[in-house]
Design a protein that fits this description.
The protein is an alpha/beta fold. It has helices spanning about 1-15, 25-30, 35-50, 95-105, 125-140, 150-160, 175, 185-200, 215-225, 255-270, 285-295, 315-325, and strands at about 55-65, 110-115, 140-145, 165, 200-205, 205-210, 235-240, 275, 300, 305, 310, 325-330.
Length: about 325
């Protein structure tokens, strides 16, 4: 009976959601409007079609160059435009980065992400970053970097170094974007994603919710991501972490169930992507995180910090996953 039901559910999902559906903003918005239980049920069906629903991938994120960024992103304490108490630092030494990667691997992480607070890397930056990528790759970890905007040749150099994923978020819907940042256009972001894809690097691209956007604008962000051709292999969904000294400090927090809805809609519209719970988990209780897993999240950033903001500690994460009967590994 269980096998028959599973087969029927899979066939139902295949009929309802074409692999390359044209997700207009209106269609995505209609998903957000579904009753909560119906939306989660549909997302769980899609999730089980493509993934083990009880496996979570662990990723660790390290800030290899903190602060002093030229961009004016309203959410970011690393911007030189904001007085958020984050000092500009130099690029980390290779040995320190590799030691952090080894510690992440020892704690169960399978992907190691390195972030640098640059508008775009200069040529002198790429050589040490490529050495970091090669070193982390040699440990058997998946590699990911986020360095800002890239030119075609820079993306090709990172590919040659063995880079698996490049993270470059769209942040928001195009209609909301200029309320958040003025130093980089939406097209700049799309151009970088194109360079990354053309170089043969997997795309990690998501956004931030809870910045004061409307539900329709959240739908617009998901529609943008889902209609990339192909859609990203990894989609981090960030819940705004408000930091004093940034323009978005004091923004009305997003309703927790609306965040879960966003996870579910991302899963339905991008069935094969890794939907990653990213910034904001420190503010989520365990029940909310469990709902996010039910909605289709199958990857978390794991460790003590996310760039400059706190993240649930590894032991606490492992305890939660154990209580939920969830495994870690490649989902």
């Amino acid at each position: 009976m269980e096998q028959t039901l599973s087969f029927i559910e899979r066939k139902s999902v295949q009929h309802a959601i074409p692999e390359h559906a044209d997700w207009t903003v209106d269609r995505v918005a209609a998903l957000f409007e579904l009753p909560f239980n119906d939306l989660l049920f549909r997302a769980q069906q899609v999730h089980r079609q493509h993934f083990d629903a009880n496996t979570i991938q662990l990723s660790t994120l390290l800030s290899i160059k903190t602060g002093g960024c030229e961009e004016d992103c309203g959410y970011c304490p690393q911007s030189a435009h904001h007085d958020a108490g984050v000092k500009a630092e130099k690029l980390m030494a290779l040995d320190d980065v590799l030691a952090a990667a080894q510690a992440a691997k020892d704690n169960g992480a399978t992907r190691f992400c390195m972030g640098a607070a640059w508008r775009s890397p200069k040529e002198r930056h790429l050589e040490p970053v490529k050495a970091m990528v090669r070193g982390v790759k040699a440990m058997g970890l998946e590699t990911c970097v986020t360095l800002g905007m890239l030119e075609v040749e820079q993306a090709l150099q990172l590919k040659d170094a063995g880079l698996d994923y490049y993270n470059h978020n769209l942040d928001s819907a195009p209609e909301f974007y200029d309320k958040i940042i003025s130093t980089r256009t939406y097209q700049d972001r799309l151009d970088t994603l194109g360079h990354v894809r053309d170089a043969g690097i997997h795309v990690c691209c998501g956004g931030i919710v809870g910045m004061g956007e409307s539900r329709l604008e959240r739908a617009g962000l998901i529609a943008q991501l889902a209609n990339l051709d192909p859609y990203p292999e990894s989609v981090p969904i960030n819940n705004l972490v408000q930091v004093e000294g940034t323009p978005l400090a004091g923004t009305e927090p997003l309703d927790p169930f609306e965040f879960v809805r966003t996870i579910a809609v991302a899963r339905i519209t991008m069935p094969k992507t890794m939907v990653r719970l990213s910034a904001g988990r420190e503010q989520m209780d365990e029940s909310l995180q469990a709902l996010c897993f039910m909605a289709g999240a199958n990857s978390i950033f794991y460790g003590d910090r996310l760039l400059t903001t706190a993240n649930p500690q590894a032991a606490k994460d492992r305890a939660l996953l154990a209580r939920l009967g969830m495994r870690t590994g490649d989902a």
